[in-house]
Amino acid sequence: MVFQISASAQDAASDAKLLAELTQLEKNSWEAMMNDDKEFFRTYMAPEAKCFPADGSIIGRDDVIRNLDDYHLTKYSMAEVSLLRINEDSAMVTYRASYEGVHKNKKEQFSDVESSSLYVRREGKWLEIFYQETAKPRAEHGTAEEAKALVAKGIALIAKEGAAAFPKINAGEDGLKDRDLYLFVHNTEAQPKV
User: Fold this and answer.
1) What is the C-alpha to C-alpha distance for residues 35 and 18, in angstroms, rounded to an integer?
2) Domains of the chain: residue spans and CATH
3) Phi, psi of 54, deg, nearest 5
4) How far apart are the C-alpha atoms of 50 and 184, rounded to whole Å?
5) H-helix segments, 35-177
6) Reduced to 3 states, what is the DSSP secondary structure of residue 98?
7) What is the CA radius of gyration of the chain?
8) Cβ atoms within 10 A of the Cβ of 87, count?
């Protein structure tokens, strides 16, 4: 029993140390993005790394490096950082990120993005091999009142036309968007009070 407690304490200390190390690497990657530091990403990411940013794209290490020509990060924050140790040579860091920047002269902003980075250790060095962002759905039409009005319109269309209404909603006819219906179902703030 004493051995189990001691081993458990060692594991916790080891995980805390690894979390600090990988969190620092993650922060370094955000700083490198702010500084357009292409060389950093050549040594930070595994050659076969895949990234799935909040914008829906799928990119590899070379794409990340190339994208620094068109994208400039201006601000970021990380919160609720945690570690999932998979084995001695692989671990995942998860956290909530908020960031903004300029892509091809257009301002972009993402808030409370659920982020995860999978790291592998090769020859004693931790490399990012996988990165995933999941953005919370945002209303296409600003306020909860506007979303409610569009949802009411969508519900009326569905009541009138049945399943034939969904292609119209998906196509964005009459200002309707399927994302607004999704938000209505999943966002209690946008739901009418009964």
Assistant:
1) 25
2) 2-134 (3.10.450.50), 144-190 (no CATH)
3) -65, -20
4) 33
5) 38-44, 61-67, 144-161, 165-171
6) strand
7) 22
8) 8
Task: Dihedral sign for Cα 16, 22, 28, 33, please.
Answer: negative
Q: Looking at residues 126-138, what average pLDDT do you find?
A: 86
Higher-confidence position of 15 and 170: 15
Q: Which residues pair with 117 in a beta bridge?
A: 93, 131
Residues 123 and 116: beta-carbon distance below 8 Å = no
Q: What pLDDT is stored for residue 171 in this prediction?
A: 57
Asked if 134 and 110 count as a contact pair (C-beta separation under 8 A), the reply is: no
Q: Which H or E run includes 110?
A: strand 106-122
As a whole number of angstroms, the longest Cα–Cα distance in the chain is 70
Report the predicted TM-score, pTM, of the whole model to 2 decimal places: 0.66
C-alpha to C-alpha distance for 97 and 110, rounded to whole angstroms: 8
- CA dist 111 and 24 (Å) reads 21
pLDDT in tens, 143-161: 666 666 666 676 677 677 7
Q: Which residues contact 58 (CB under 8 A, 6 or more apart)?
A: 50, 51, 52
Taking the CA atoms of 171, 111, 95 and 50 in sequence, report the sign of the dihedral they define: positive
